[in-house]
Structures are given as C-alpha cells and as structure tokens.
C-alpha cells in the first residue's frame, strides 16, 4: 500500500517512516490499533503544509501522541529510526512483508508460511499446494497487481462495463467507486458497484438475486474484459480484468447492492477507509449507526432502529449533521 505522501510534501521522510511502521504493525505484529494510529499520523502529516521541526510541534496535531512525537524527534535528530533499522535487518519481518505483497496472503498466512520456511517468491512457486486459489492468482500476477492503474485506463474499463451492462438490461446502475471516484490520477484496483431498480433488500426472488451479478460476470468474460475469477458469490465478485494486449492484468471487484441500500454502499465503497472510520465515529456520536447497508438511529436502549430512507449521499451527511464532503475531499 502506498505511503500517503507525495513528492512535494515537506514531511515526506517522516510520512514514509510512519507508513512503514504501520505496515509492520499490520503484517508482522498484527496490532491493528497501532497500524491505524501510524496511518492516521502519517495522513495528518501528509496534509501539513510546512516542515515539522520538532516532536513537540507534531504533538499539537490531532492524531499524533507522545510515542509518535518521540519517533519524529528521533528522525529529526538522527536522520533515521532505530526501530525501522532493526525491522530492515530482521529476516522473518522481511519475509512476512514480502509474502503479504501477494494478493490473498494476509499477515496470519504469511506467518504460517514463514514458520514452514517458505520465505521467498521462489519458495511460493514450489509450494502452491499450500496456497488457496486466490493466493495462486495473486502469485501469478504479483507484478501486475502492484502496478498502479492510470485514470484513463479505468475510464476505458468503465465504458466497456457500462456498455455491456446496459446491453444486458437497461435497469442496471453502475458506479466505479474506490480511489477512482475520489478523483485519484491512479488506483490500485477497479471497484465497481452495481444495482438494479427491481432489486431491493425486500426482494424474495432467489433466482433474480442469484443471477443479477452472475449474468454481468458472464457477459464481461465473453467480451474478454474479465480474465480471472478469484471468487464469485451472489453479491460479490473478486477477480481480474485486462483491457488490451498492452495493459497489465488488473484487480477488479464488483459488488451488487439492493437499490434501497445503494447510497450507503456508494459511500462505503468510495472510502477512503480512514474517511469511513471517521464518518462512522461521527455518526455514532450523533446517535446513528452507519455501515455499507444502512443508516439507522440508535435509541436510548442502544438498539438500532429501522433503516432511514436515503435518496442520495447528501442525505446521509444531512441526517448525522456532518458537513458534506465531495468524493475528492474524502481521501484523508
Ligand atoms: N473499505 C473500507 N474498509 C476497508 C477496506 C475497504 O472502508 N478495510 C472501503 C473504502 C475503500 C473501498 O472500500 O475506499 C475500496 O477499497 P480499496 O481497498 O480498493 O481501496 P481504494 O480504492 O480506496 O484504494 P486503491 O486505489 O488502493 O484501490
Ligand atoms: Mg480500490
Ligand atoms: Mn478494491
């Protein structure tokens, strides 16, 4: 995962150190609390417009506490971080970080493999019997899946999906979400959200539910956009697509969502994940519970009520009294 820092960020070095520590906490220590703390700190610093000159100065920013500000002091005073130096020299940390680059290999699986002395990509190729279908695909396209997708390529993929889907049935609605919808110039994958006007959370028709997504996947295979399926359920497809001979194979996610849950799903699937976290926390403070399906008031008993009727993303922000943010403003 990329560091939330760019070339013109005056605190670039600190951000990448914190992002690397975040990865270490996620993959090696498996401490999600610390992972989120480091990511939050890195993202706060990435949008700070001036060079931080001391840990004390950093501590004044929200999301940066005592421990992280001490690390910032160490970087500023010595030009490096001993903790990171140690991680860079630790063989099992190196191996775990390497293996988790494969799509489908998470921190726990990576640890298991390393404990079996499977530590390199070469080792993985020799032990595909220990890998799931997802992990085998991840290994096959390791290089391709790490390449960022230019916005223009996603625009072309979007056109094909829109075209094929509308040929199938004009009552489908398609929205490409994720970092693409947030306006990023490049993305890690293609996050596609689909609904159909006759499919709601009350739909009982099992056949309709079972085929709405499968028909789309079949169509996109037929036109050679989809090249691999990692998994396919009634509401979720994970796989890969390839636009043409000159483009790499790309990760493609498709989700089918009931029409009445479309806006909560769009909001969720647009992210970023940190933005979702903040917004959900705000919703709870305002007395609501928000997830990818619905927004529900939480009564004094703590039991969530019926889902509120939502007809736009703005509705969700309005209900919880949160200032509306355009997708482009949700990348923090
Ligand atoms: N999401 C989330 N929490 C997670 C994972 C995902 O809220 N743990 C939501 C927000 C993300 C969206 O799903 O924006 C899509 O997930 P991706 O992993 O594809 O992330 P992005 O599209 O934001 O970034 P990338 O360009 O790396 O794909
Ligand atoms: Mg994405
Ligand atoms: Mn995705």
Task: Please write the string of helix (H) and strand (E) elements.
Answer: HHHHHHHHHHEHEHEEHEEEHHEEH
Low-confidence stretches: 1-5
Largest sheet: 5 strands, mixed
- Strands of the widest sheet, in order across it, are 2-4-7-6-5
Mean pLDDT: 95
State the separation between the terminal residues, measured CA to CA: 15 Å
Number of helices: 16
**Looking at the structure, what is the overall shape?**
globular
Count of strand segments: 9
Ligand list:
2'-deoxycytidine-5'-triphosphate, magnesium ion, manganese (II) ion
Kindly state the percentage of residues in helix.
40-55%
Structural class: alpha+beta
Radius of gyration: 22 Å
Query: What is the strand content?
Result: 5-15%
Structure write-up:
With 332 residues, this protein is of the alpha+beta class. Helices cover 49% and strands 13% of the residues. The protein has helices spanning 12-29, 32-46, 55-59, 66-78, 82-88, 91-99, 107-115, 121-126, 133-140, 142-146, 151-168, 178-181, 206-222, 262-270, 273-285, 313-319, and strands at 149-150, 172-176, 186-187, 190-196, 226-232, 236-241, 250-256, 288-290, 295-297. It has a five-stranded mixed beta sheet, sandwiched between helices. It has a two-stranded antiparallel ribbon with strand order 1-3. Helix 1 packs antiparallel against helix 2 (32-46), helix 6 crosses helix 7 and helix 11 (151-168) packs across helix 13. The chain is globular and about 65 Å long. Residues 1-5 have low confidence and may be disordered. The structure holds 2'-deoxycytidine-5'-triphosphate, magnesium ion and manganese (II) ion. Manganese (II) ion binds next to loops. Keywords: Cytoplasm, DNA damage, DNA repair, DNA replication, DNA synthesis, DNA-binding, DNA-directed DNA polymerase, Lyase, Magnesium, Metal-binding, Methylation, Nucleotidyltransferase, Nucleus, Sodium, Transferase, Ubl conjugation. It is an enzyme of class 2 (transferase). GO terms for molecular function: class I DNA-(apurinic or apyrimidinic site) endonuclease activity; DNA binding; DNA-directed DNA polymerase activity; metal ion binding. It is found in: Cytoplasm; Nucleus.
